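Please, structure for the following, as tokens.
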Amino acid sequence: MSAHDSALSVPEEVGLLYDRLTALDTEGTGGSLHLGFWDLDDTGVPLVEAADRLTDMMADRLLLRPGHRVLDVGCGLGQPAGRIARRTGAHVTGIAISRDQITRATEIAEAEGLSGQVEFQHADAMELPFPDESFDAAIAIESIFHMPDREQVFREVRRVLRPGGRIVLTDFFARGPIPADKQRHVDRLLRDFIMTLADGDDYLPMLRRAGLRFTELLDITEQSVRPTFQQMSRDNDQLDPVFAEGGDAKFSPADMVDVDEFGSALLTAEKPR
């Protein structure tokens, strides 16, 4: 739970947070608000290109074909959904808890001529408004850490996936005990962005209980977290308006550059046939 208005539910808080983020100029990230992926010898690649690379890595693991239906859980402004649709020929339905993001994502898709291939809907991932076995695949790019109950999200995704359908996601997790002198930076990030850190040891039993079968788990921290925070720290001014109303110290990407214990994982699972 964040230090925002405690009278609001977590989904409502997250929705308001992303309403504020949506009001910012996102041209620097190409409309994507997620981390990038770099090879260790090419960290000078711009974040917008590295973010597309991470989207492609995840989409490739979905094994999509033209005509497949994909659920994008936490779709943001729809840039990843549009990219997946163009690359694979799949139809993508994006959901977000932010109404402003859904409005903007729809406008952008229309402007790019993708209205027939992508669509966006306001929805809560813990109560998906879709019939059973509606989708061939699901993707969740840095969204599940906002949700109060990861396992419930997995249950809902399993329900709407067809047998053999895959989910690919990225999540933040604790790679090890966070040193005391760095803990305040992590706490501030979790507070300001209304997130929780996963425990890597919990993932396999959580997936099993939700009825999903684990396929792959990659620690992408070195290729993703540090270089993203390095690049974000150079453009931190665009985040200032989001948290300017708070009295406490604001989140700064520069504070997270050397927190090696703050990890990112790419996970693939599937619904048994």
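Strands lie at 69-73, 91-96, 118-122, 135-141, 161-174, 213-219, 262-270. The chain has one domain: 10-270.
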